[in-house]
Amino acid sequence: MTKRFSLSFSQLVLLAVALVLAAIWLAPIAWAVATSLKPEDETTKIPLQWFASEITLDSYRLVLETGGIVKWAINSTVTAVIVTFLTVLFSAMAAYGFARTQFRGQRALLALILAGIMVPPQVLIAPLFAEMVALGLVDTWWAIILPQVAAPLIVYILYKFFQDVPPELEQAAFVDGAGRWRVFFTIVLPLSRPVLAAVSIFTFITTWNNFLWPFLVSTDPNTMTLPVGLANVVQGTFGLRYAQIMASVVLAGLPLLVVFVLFQRQIVRGVAHTGLAGQ
């Protein structure tokens, strides 16, 4: 017995709009991939053509052989993993402290943290850079990592989630002799896996894509992240060789695509648990 699917007029309209938007968003990606597979002399041919007369992987080979994209990708991976781990850990500790403990000045401190959400990161670049210079951390991993660990929005998301965790579970553990730290690491964090997975993925993607701050504090090619390396070195090395530039861009975006494909279920569950879908 076959099931018949029918769509209303409004659903058809929404589907058509979604398809149009998807085509608009995917067009630049498709153009980058198509250009990266062209011979270099066909990338500037007039009129422009989507498909080359001959598909070649020479641009990818040259990028991997002559560019530092592998080193930059490793730097970005290390930076994103460390920033994600420290951000989620410290944000979870702060959020749990606000959700479950009472202390003098709690409301004022929480309001100060929430106020940080309204401050554009660009406003803090000058004082942060001056601080890194004073501490002698420019061109080091610490200069790239430490300023990105402070995440007021992550603290707020986890704070709202911890408020909804039944306190009876923690009280039962306290009765059995467990301390606050043990309750936090063995009960609260395991119950928070969906939201922790979501904020971890968002933090990883944001850190991977971050360009401005690493660009300011990193002039050493050995510490450059992928976006900074592509901006500083790729065009200087390849000139106006568009096939190689597009190949670099495609290679830079592949890790994020893999992360999203592997963890899309956790992203959806985390958004549902944190209530971000309605914001």
Write a structural description.
By secondary structure, the chain is mainly alpha-helical. It has 2 domains: 2-59, no CATH class; 67-237, MetI-like (MetI-like fold). It contains 13 helices and no strands. It has helices spanning 9-36, 58-66, 69-100, 106-115, 125-135, 141-149, 152-163, 167-175, 180-191, 193-209, 212-217, 226-238, 242-274.
Task: Write a concise synopsis of the structure shown.
This protein has 279 residues and is mostly helical.
Topology:
Elements: H1 9-36, H2 58-66, H3 69-100, H4 106-115, H5 125-135, H6 141-149, H7 152-163, H8 167-175, H9 180-191, H10 193-209, H11 212-217, H12 226-238, H13 242-274
Helix pairs in contact: 1-13, 2-13, 3-6, 3-7, 3-10, 3-12, 8-9, 10-13, 12-13
Query: How many domain modules?
Result: 2
- The CATH architecture of the largest domain would be Orthogonal Bundle
Q: What are the low-pLDDT stretches, counting only 5+ consecutive residues below 50?
A: none
Percent of sequence in beta strands: under 5%
Largest sheet: none
Number of strand elements: 0
Radius of gyration: 24 Å
C-alpha end-to-end distance: 42 Å
Give the CATH superfamily of the largest domain: MetI-like
Amount of helix: over 70%
CATH class of the largest domain: Mainly Alpha
Number of helices: 13
- Which fold name corresponds to the CATH topology of the largest domain? MetI-like fold
Mean pLDDT: 81
Descriptive terms for the model:
279 residues; mainly alpha; MetI-like fold; 72% helix
